[in-house]
What we know:
CATH class: Alpha Beta
Helix content: 40-55%
Mean pLDDT: 85
Strand content: 5-15%
Protein name: Di-trans,poly-cis-decaprenylcistransferase
CATH superfamily: Decaprenyl diphosphate synthase-like
Radius of gyration: 16 Å
Largest sheet: 2 strands, parallel
Pfam family, one: Prenyltransf
Number of strands: 2
Organism: Candidatus Shapirobacteria bacterium CG10_big_fil_rev_8_21_14_0_10_38_14
Keywords: Transferase
Low-confidence stretches: 1-7
Strand order of the largest sheet: 1-2
Distance between the termini: 30 Å
Structural class: mainly alpha
Number of helices: 5
Order of helices and strands: HEHHEHH
CATH architecture: 3-Layer(aba) Sandwich
CATH topology: Undecaprenyl pyrophosphate synthetase
GO molecular function, one term: ditrans,polycis-polyprenyl diphosphate synthase [(2E,6E)-farnesyl diphosphate specific] activity
Amino acid sequence: MARPEAIENNSEQGLECWLSTIEARWQNIPEFEVPEEKLQHLAVICDGNRRAAQERGLNSFYGHRAGVEVIRGVTRACRQWQIHTLTFWTWSTENWKRDREQIGYVMDLAARFLRDSELKRELFENE
């Protein structure tokens, strides 16, 4: 994966702490019954990852990495809640105007996430 020079080693500990917090939040998904006729498809617009990282004093690139973990958590919750269709809007045409380094980082991150064998196993187990 592309590692931009802007990412400093000293912020990796902050990222790991943030990722642990996100993972812990999604460990105990609350019970929620969704009548099938009312909610069959949930669409999520992923926004604010860079701002969230900056608010934590981390490099904005780390916000995208944290966003992947949130997507995993939402996916697990929707599976538990039996919401059968889930859409994530993760990239807009405006995003292509960003710095090439950031675009490369996000595209590499997406490719790695989509190749993740654990994720694929989870998705296919619950078809």
